[in-house]
């Protein structure tokens, strides 16, 4: 088993920090970071910034070139096994060979069928020293949506719900009742996800845009909108149907609009839906509403994480969320943390075997 120096650990930890710059911008690729060193000194760094841009290893090599530093004989710390195939960019293994790297330290192997150890083998065959496993658990946590998708071909599901002090989700007059900080958090969360899902009743009631409108979106794409609409009741003039961004209608009708799926309990078969989204490369799905949809996903055990926001505001009479601690625990989730977002109480839940993606997610 490899032993790691404090310098090794600090370099890989730096690579993990760099990888976070690409979170939400590189899907369906995972966030990856890379640090190049020589003689105990960091000479260059890089990360996969956005889809179609240089991969982390290539970005680090480009950073060395920009700084006028040779990469010959250096060591590369990279959070994921280098790819060996041509995709949107040339293989990272080829870039490392070209750069004259003498050693590559890998946090974790790539489970993608196009790699799966073959990238490491290419480096070994070329005489490069390869060591692996340094901060591997942390790297797998950071890339958990990608890892889950490679294994299951389904997205991780995060449920986000907001309610008033009494568990009511909607008053007589539609409108926002949570804090500015909670609204900012909701839009940050959208920026971390590939797709947002709601039921058609949410569209009919609130006519939401379901896009990212707050904060610096950077190079993030707006998430795909998915509407569960079993009998295709969505208004033709709804914002999600007229703003030019993609919306997928999920129904059970013999109709060419949207995606027709087999019927499940109260609507479309949700497992079939997750399979469909996985086939589309969706790795992070955000379930935003409303109560009927939350209940369906929880009762079928399909929720991996939940973010429950409770305001101190009282809306009066109205539909209840149906989300109490007992129901969420029965669905297999445990409390990870509690936060205060501008006076709103926020509870973070996750499956016991699924670590929270990072300390600042979302």
Q: How would the blueprint of this fold be written?
A:
Layout (H helix, E strand, L loop, with lengths): L5 H14 L13 E6 L2 E7 L8 H12 L7 E4 L13 H8 L3 E4 L11 H8 L3 E4 L3 H7 L1 H9 L3 E8 L16 H13 L2 E5 H7 L17 E5 L10 H4 L4 E5 L7 E2 L9 H10 L4 E6 L1 H9 L5 E6 L14 H6 L3 E8 L2 E7 L12
Parallel strand pairs: 3-4, 4-5, 6-11, 6-12, 7-8, 7-11, 8-9, 9-10
Antiparallel strand pairs: 1-2, 1-3, 12-14, 13-14
Helix pairs in contact: 2-3, 3-4
3D architecture notes:
It is a single chain. The chain is 30% helix and 21% strand. The protein has helices at 6-19, 56-67, 92-99, 118-125, 136-142, 144-152, 180-192, 200-206, 239-242, 270-279, 291-299, 325-330; strands at 33-38, 41-47, 75-78, 103-106, 129-132, 156-163, 195-199, 224-228, 247-251, 259-260, 284-289, 305-310, 334-341, 344-350. The chain has a nine-stranded mixed β-sheet, with helices on both faces. Strand 7 (195-199), helix 8 and strand 8 form a beta-alpha-beta unit. The longest helix is centred in the first third of the chain and has 14 residues, at 6-19. It is elongated.
Task: Summarize the structure in short.
It contains twelve helices and 14 strands.
Helix and strand pattern: HEEHEHEHEHHEHEHEHEEHEHEHEE
Secondary structure: helix percent = 25-40%
Cα Rg: 22 Å
Span of the ends, CA to CA: 35 Å
Biggest sheet: strands, sense, closure?
9 strands, mixed
Features:
362 residues; 30% helix; 14 strands; alpha/beta; nine-stranded mixed beta sheet
